[in-house]
Amino acid sequence: MKISLSCLFLGLFFSFTACKKAQKYPDNAALRLVTVPFISYFNQLYGTDTLLQTMDVTLPLTRDEVNTPVVILVHGGSWVAGAKNDFYGLGLDTFFTSNGCAMVNINYRLCTSYPYPDALDDIGLVMNYIKRNASRWRVNPDRICILGRSSGSQLALLYAYSRNADKRIKAVIDGFGPTNLTDSTIVNTQLGLNVTNMLGDYATYPDLWHDASPIYHMNGAVPTVIFQGTVDELVYPKQSLMLQDSLIARSVPSLYIPWVGAGHGWSQENWIASQNATITFVKKYL
After folding, report:
1. Which of 1, 2, 141, 206 has the largest count of CB atoms under 10 Å?
2. Residue 9 has pLDDT above 80, yes or no
3. What percent of the chain has pLDDT over 90?
4. Do the Cβ atoms of 63 and 139 come closer than 8 Å?
5. Segment 65-86 mean pLDDT
6. Three-class SS of residue 72?
7. d(CA 99, CA 248)
8. CB–CB of 190/198 below 8 Å?
9. pLDDT tens digit string along 102-126?
10. Over the stretch 54-73, which tens digit does the pLDDT of each residue have?
11. Is the four-CA dihedral 156, 157, 162, 166 of positive or negative sign?
């Protein structure tokens, strides 16, 4: 097992830099070193693919099986690329752990090698892994939030809305994700070609495109935060506005945060400006 310990020292002249490389320690070493603010386990295998079915787990030092929720990160990449490492350098790990949440940052099976819905199934495998290890990690497996970016948001929303029968997912954070794959802003654009790579041609498989759209699973919607760049030309703002309207119509709690002037992609400046409102909203429902 690969385990990395990341340390934060309190003082006037010290600042935190996140660990990127795993180091080897005995399995119980992290539990003995009680001076660190959080503990990271890198490249934990949750499936059989040793590259694509891996995840990094970051645990706040002070935690328990009642009060410590879990945030799952789902990377983007048009369903054909991307990796969990894309989230590093953004401060999400330290942000969530400093707010009392455990973080699970996942790789998943890409449609270049695996058919849909294997990527969606992988979120379920991660959910099961969290439940099996909740006592060891000292986290609450029934208080889950999923955060996605771009295509990862489509997966996060779809899983939260359509595969949450046990109600373990309490909230979802949608980072500029496609919500209605059947809309002309997707079917007739570059993004539609990416969806075709995953689901096949729209004219041939319209039901697949429909069923893979979170907007058609609103009966299972959970409280949702939406980030959307106002000049996004890949996932048009219309996609997020349709989701927001559907949530409001069903009285599902939601928080819409427009990133004014931002295109498609993660805006660190806008995230920093949004993070307090985001954690306040999410903690209300976690």
Report:
1. 141
2. no
3. 85
4. yes
5. 97
6. strand
7. 28
8. no
9. 999 999 999 999 999 999 999 999 9
10. 999 999 999 999 999 999 99
11. positive
Residue indicated by tokens 């945060």: 257
Taking CA atoms, 180 is separated from 80, 184, 248, in Å, by 19, 9, 16
Q: Which residue has the tokens 């369903």?
A: 79
| H helix runs in the chain, sequence order | 29-32, 92-98, 118-137, 151-162, 184-187, 190-199, 206-211, 237-249, 268-285
75 vs 233: CA distance, rounded Å:
19
Question: What pTM did the predictor assign?
Answer: 0.87
The residue type of 131 is: K
Report the C-alpha gap between 282 and 254 in whole angstroms.
10
What length is written for the chain? Answer: 286
What are the b/e assignments for 196-216, b being 16+ CB within 10 Å?
eebbeebeeeeebbebbbbbb
In angstroms, the first-to-last Cα distance of the chain is: 30
Encode pLDDT of 200-251 as tens digits.
999 999 999 999 999 999 999 999 999 999 999 999 999 999 999 999 999 9
Bin 203: left if φ > 0, else alpha if -120 < ψ < 50, else beta.
alpha
Q: Tell me the sheet residues that pair with 227.
A: 175, 257
3-state secondary structure of 220: helix
Cα atoms in the Cβ-side hemisphere of radius 13 Å centred on 246: 21
Distance between CA atoms of residues 271 and 33, nearest Å: 32
